[in-house]
Design a protein that fits this description.
By secondary structure, the protein is an alpha/beta fold. It contains six helices and five strands; from the N terminus they run βααβαβαββαα. The protein has a single domain, classed as Dehydroquinase, class II (Rossmann fold), CATH 3.40.50. Helices cover 34% and strands 18% of the residues. Helix 3 runs parallel beside helix 4. The structure holds 1,3,4-trihydroxy-5-OXO-cyclohexanecarboxylic acid.
């Protein structure tokens, strides 16, 4: 099984950025832990602060990977382009957020991503990513039931 984790803007600063919301762990450190925990799954990680690069990555992995875990960060709330890219590809995407965006400012309640995703996991800190991996390993998702 091949999964891609794609992180959007400012998530390169995890561990340093607004730690009361996003925690003290860098994504690189957490990613190493995930790879150790799931040795049989090939997991690749990509992060960009640039909207078009996120679309390019979705196009690149979106036709032969088994699943994509996407935290589009602030672009979630603004990007019709990323929403369209998810619609264009065939690989299922799970939207994740570290924080529970529904409990935060109103502008974070809108997502251009959710309508095109298989599911949405948020509010569990970095564990949100692990829960998305678990979801992809379940037969119901694999066979699109
Ligand atoms: C976030 C929530 C977004 O609203 C915010 O812009 C982020 C991170 C999260 O993971 O909680 O950068 O996607």
């Amino acid at each position: 099984m091949k999964l891609a984790i794609i992180n959007g803007p400012n998530l390169n600063l995890l561990g340093k950025r607004e730690t009361s919301i996003y925690g003290n762990t860098s994504f690189e450190k957490y990613f190493k832990q995930l790879q150790k925990e799931y040795p049989k799954i090939e997991i690749v990680y990509f992060q960009s602060n640039i909207e078009g690069e996120i679309m390019n990555k979705l196009h690149q992995v979106g036709f032969d990977y088994d699943g994509i875990i996407l935290n589009a960060a602030a672009y979630t709330h603004t990007s019709i382009g990323i929403g369209d890219a998810i619609k264009a590809i065939t690989t299922a995407v799970i939207e994740v957020h570290i924080s529970n965006v529904r409990c935060r400012e109103k502008f974070r309640h809108k997502s251009f991503i959710t309508p095109h995703c298989k599911g949405l996991i948020m509010g569990f800190g970095l564990v949100s990513y692990k829960l998305a991996i678990e979801a992809f390993t379940k037969e119901t998702l694999k066979f699109n039931l």
